[in-house]
Amino acid sequence: MMRYEELLLAELFAKADEGYRTFIKRLLKNEKINVIGVRMPTLRKIAKARKGEFEAILACSNRYYEINLLKCLIAGMLPFDAFTKFVDCLVSLLDNWAVVDSFTAPCIAKHRTEFLPFIERFFADGSEFAVRYALVTLLHYYLDEQFLPRIFAYLRTCSMEQYYVSMAAAWLVAEVLVKFYDEGVRFLEEGSLDCATRRRAVRKACESFRLSAEQKVAIKRFR
34 pairs with which residues across the strands? Predict the structure, then answer.
């Protein structure tokens, strides 16, 4: 397995961009994360080319940002039954917002009810990036009228003290406001969100071109 990992790392380092590495390091705001500097389009090509080698890549060490991202990118290509076998392991490896936000799995879209126990488990985990993953997954795959009550229930009970949780919750609320404006306003009126998350949500919603000027003026009262 070490030989496989060495070859994979050699490929990644051959495609590294030092300027991009510096850029990503600055965005991640975590000096402990080792970054090679491979751009996302290149990583997606590698993931697609190596999708049949998922278990070999999963066995690689977690020393590098790009290795963990490749694990999540390939897992996202799996059918639902296979994906759910690995998702707990992968969520336990999450240590930054960029990998979380790239960890999408289209198979969830057709199995939303079946995936809810996983989302509940990630909320219960309480760790910053497991909770962020749960929130971002709701945003990607559950943002319709059927699941709004459940989304609001999660937002009411979710602790927003951790920065990347608060930012994900704000992003989710902003998208609710864009797609279901009246319901989103009623949720804000409840006062369930802490001040920082509420302000971030309003700011992000106001950045959207999908809300009217009048709607933006109206929600600014929640800042």
Answer: 64
Q: Where are the domains of the chain?
A: 1-110, 111-223
- Asked if 38 and 17 count as a contact pair (C-beta separation under 8 A), the reply is yes
Residue 1 has pLDDT above 70, yes or no: no
Q: 77, 78, 91, 167: which is closest to 122 by C-alpha?
A: 91
Q: Backbone phi, then psi, for 166, in 5-degree steps?
A: -60, -45
Using alpha carbons, select from 123, 54, 117, 122 the residue that is nearest to residue 83: 54
CA–CA dist 93, 170 (Å, integer): 23
The pTM (predicted TM-score) of the whole model is 0.94
At 2, the pLDDT band (50, 70, 90 cuts) reads low
192/194 Cα distance (integer angstroms): 7
Query: Taking the chain, what is the end-to-end CA distance rounded to the nearest angstrom?
Result: 53
Quote the crossing angle between the two packed helices 112-125 and 128-141, to the nearest 10°.
160
Identify the residue whose tokens are 């126990």. 117
CA triple 189-190-196, angle to 5 deg: 80
Residue with tokens 């939303």: 112
Q: Closest Cα to residue 47, out of 75, 66, 80, 70?
A: 70
